[in-house]
Amino acid sequence: MRIATYTALLLIYAILSPCAYTAVKNIQDEADFTEAVLKKPGIKMVVFSTGWCGYCKKLDPLIRKISDGYSDKLAFYVVDGDKLYATAKKYKVNGYPTAVFIEDGIEKGRMIGYHEEQQIIDIINKQLK
Description:
The protein is of the alpha/beta class.
């Protein structure tokens, strides 16, 4: 009985947890980046960050929160700049966090550094025009 209750609680948590329904996808490697970002049509927001970057850690929950409201208009991806250094270098990422807006394989804009929620929304809306 206890195992069933525990399992049910974990399931409820997974459903209600913000991380469970986020529209942000983590890019694992170069092949994943090519397939998800470069080959798929539409505009994407690719956030380059690192595990040691304090502003990246502060920006991440904001991006995940905002992404839920744009999931039908914009695809969101996170790239670890340490793991995919060549990709970060290709997109001239000189500091973290940096978000690059990419459409059909072409950079359309970028957001450098940490921004508050409304600023991020304004930047996204500008990119979607």
